[in-house]
Amino acid sequence: MLDVLERTHPDARIYLDYEGPLQLLVATILAAQCTDEKVNEVTPQLFDRYPTAEALARARLSTLEKMLRPTGFFRQKAKSIRECCRTLVDEHAGEVPDSADELTKIRGVGRKTANIVLGNAFGQQAIAVDTHVHRVANRLGLAASRYPDKVEKQMCEIVPEERWTRATLLLGTHGRRICSAKKPDCGNCPVNGLCDYYKPGFPK
After folding, report:
1. pTM, full prediction
2. Which among 2, 7, 168, 175 would be 20 to 30 A from 129, CA to CA?
3. 150 catalytic, yes or no?
4. Where do the domains of the chain lie, and which CATH numbers do they carry?
5. Catalytic residue (one of 3, 11, 130, 149)
């Protein structure tokens, strides 16, 4: 299944623009309940003004809220990002830790966010279950749960570890291009013969 998706989406990638772990961490926090495209419109100005964790930790909350307003839930996101960066400064010398345990101790950083940073900024193997991966994994039969953490665990049990990060990118891209939420293009899906959702009688 992954081989077919690799041939179908050889350009699969993360859709957030970033330079380094800090930018990816902040962008991923902003992407909650927001499109990656909108986040990419906001972050250049944000990182130009606040290029380091130290700068973000000292940022005026009202200024952050104004800059982050287009991403939705901007008040909560502004607080989370500032507190996140204060933790980075106080406990990690302003650097983003490369450990899931340390990342998930930071305010606003769950397993999905941590795994996106680990897999893409640090080159580690990690499965990050965003809305696209969650949907596609359940439809294909790679997982069976409504809970992202359980989907991650189930996928880790059957996907070879050396392909965890790439599998995340492939499923995410497939979910964007073919296996969409409301109208999946099952007829043109290259893995429909392996897919539980496409089988007759499968609960739609």
Report:
1. 0.94
2. 7
3. no
4. 2-12+127-194 (1.10.1670.10), 21-120 (1.10.340.30)
5. 130
Q: Which of 3, 36, 105, 112 is catalytic?
A: 112
3-state secondary structure the chain: CHHHHHHHCCCCCCCCCCCCHHHHHHHHHHCCCCCHHHHHHHHHHHHHHCCCHHHHHCCCHHHHHHHHHHHCCHHHHHHHHHHHHHHHHHHHCCCCCCCHHHHCCCCCCCHHHHHHHHHHCCCCCCCCCCHHHHHHHHHHCCCCCCCHHHHHHHHHHHCCHHHHHHHHHHHHHHHHHCCCCCCCCHHHCCCHHHCCCCCCCCCC
Query: How do the pLDDT tens digits run along the chain, 204 residues long?
Result: 999 999 999 999 999 999 999 999 999 999 999 999 999 999 999 999 999 999 999 999 999 999 999 999 999 999 999 999 999 999 999 999 999 999 999 988 999 999 999 999 999 999 999 999 999 999 999 999 999 999 999 999 999 999 999 999 999 999 999 999 999 999 999 999 999 999 876 655
Told to judge if 130 belongs to the known catalytic residues of this protein, a careful annotator would answer yes
